[in-house]
Design brief:
By secondary structure, this protein is an alpha/beta fold. It has nine helices and twelve strands. Strands 9-10-7-11-12 form a five-stranded mixed sheet, sandwiched between helices. Helix 1 runs parallel beside helix 3 and helix 4 packs across helix 5. It is globular. The chain starts with 8 loop residues before the first helix and ends with a helix.
Length: 286
């Protein structure tokens, strides 16, 4: 078992700043440089006498190139997404990641804009967010700095939640896969997000971490917006009641989750799935 490493100071700073790019992308959509809410990016959806947080597509178009092919994520989309618990479904499995990037505010669309009200999370459960020559303590410090959190409280929360807190002192590159998964999910419960974007699988094992995380997540996300991109139907059925469907440039809201899951079942992105999607596209001109 490796000892808790002490990273080189200069390389540690570089890696922390590189990692901050991902966290900061979502952070900038909810706050301006002074930390106050950015009113230029806020828009309200009035439901009765209540204001509902939302994401608003305004003539948004986005066609990133993935695996050598342009993916039509959004084509001149105008759509207001009110607060709710949504499953993110796509007809093309390889379109899910760029769709998550847009919904989490990691990058703007190529044309038009997407406006957010409230603080948007980074894609929770995306492994690539935890990398480089840094320790878990550095990651916690980065999150605390970006979101104005108490360092001691945040460290205590993470130490309490994860199965083996000793790994927090290790470099990320030495973390076991199980701890990387736990740490990434637990860290996302620290900031008070208004919009939760969960890209990975929800904890479903009958263990201590899964129980703690699910309990705290339900409390944290109560009354907030949730967009879940899990590939497990059980996750989507448990946590969501509607769906956001991304289908060949169209982005729509499906109020009947069961029908949406039947039509757009979640699939893992792979070349086999991509070939299947291209065959479907050739057979269906719409």
């Amino acid at each position: 078992m490796p000892e808790a490493p002490t990273p080189n100071a200069s390389s540690c700073v570089t890696n922390v700043e590189e990692m901050a790019v991902g966290f900061r992308g979502a952070w900038q959509h909810g706050h301006n440089k002074t930390g106050s809410r950015n009113r230029l990016q806020e828009c309200w959806c009035i439901i009765g006498d209540q204001r509902s947080l939302m994401i608003s597509f305004q003539r948004a178009s986005d066609e990133p190139e993935i695996a050598g092919i342009r993916r039509h994520i959004a084509s001149s989309v105008d759509l207001d997404i009110p607060t709710g618990r949504y499953a993110l479904l796509t007809s093309d499995p390889l379109a899910k990641k760029p769709a998550v990037d847009l919904l989490a505010g990691l990058r703007p669309p190529q044309m038009g804009r997407i406006s957010f009200i409230g603080l948007t999370s980074w894609p929770i459960g995306r492994p690539a967010f935890l990398r480089g020559n840094v320790t878990g303590r550095h990651v916690i410090a980065l999150i605390c700095r970006l979101y104005g959190l108490d360092m001691h409280v945040s460290n205590a929360v993470l130490e309490t939640m994860v199965t083996d807190p000793r790994h927090i002192n290790w470099k990320v590159e030495h973390w076991p896969a199980e701890f990387r998964y736990e740490f990434g999910l637990a860290a996302a419960l620290l900031p008070p997000f208004d919009i939760y974007i969960v890209e990975g699988v929800f904890p479903f094992l009958k263990d201590r971490f899964s129980y703690l995380w699910n309990t705290l997540f339900e409390k944290r996300s109560a009354g907030k917006m949730l967009i879940a991109g899990s590939n497990r139907v059980a996750d989507l059925s448990k946590y969501c009641d509607r769906a956001i469907v991304v289908n060949r440039g169209r982005v729509t809201i499906a109020n009947d989750l069961k029908k949406a899951l039947d039509r757009y079942p979640p699939r893992v992105a792979s070349y086999d799935a991509q070939k299947e999607f291209e065959d479907e596209l050739a057979d269906d001109p719409l």
